[in-house]
Amino acid sequence: MMDKRSECLADIFRLSQKSELLGDELEMLKNDAAELENCLAELSSFWTGTASEAYIIDMRRSLEGLKAYLKSIDNISQNFKFASQTYSKCEERVSEIIGAVDI
Q1: Is it the case that residue 83 has pLDDT exceeding 80?
Q2: What is the DSSP string of the chain?
Q3: pTM
């Protein structure tokens, strides 16, 4: 059975891992979105007509929605990172206070 301090440290570690994982995944998704934008620009250069216009407009809307979604994920990742750093600092400070107590 883990003591309370170990549980807290494990949670801080997991929080840090989640932040890092989200950041890594986010970068891959941003790269994929940029590649999709490039493909869309290339497609619109040689495909013309009403169907093309409708498709391009729809895809641009979808890309804007994707960008908003990615921004939300980035905010979550940053919040996890901030929480992890804050909890770590707090844990360090508590350890310093406890270490300073003479018994």
Answers
A1: yes
A2: ---HHHHHHHHHHHHHHHHHHHHHHHHHHHHHHHHHHHHHHHHHHH--SHHHHHHHHHHHHHHHHHHHHHHHHHHHHHHHHHHHHHHHHHHHHHHHHHHH---
A3: 0.71
* Domain-wise residue ranges, the chain: 48-75
pLDDT at 94: 86
Q: Please give the C-alpha separations between residue 47 and each of 34, 40, 43, 44, 72, in angstroms, as whole numbers.
A: 20, 10, 6, 5, 33
Using one digit for the tens of pLDDT, what is the confidence trace for 16-40?
Answer: 888 888 889 999 999 999 999 999 9
Overall average pLDDT of the 55-81 stretch: 92
CA distance 75 to 73: 5
Q: Which amino acid is at 60?
A: R
98-103 long-range Cβ contacts below 8 angstroms, 24+ apart: none
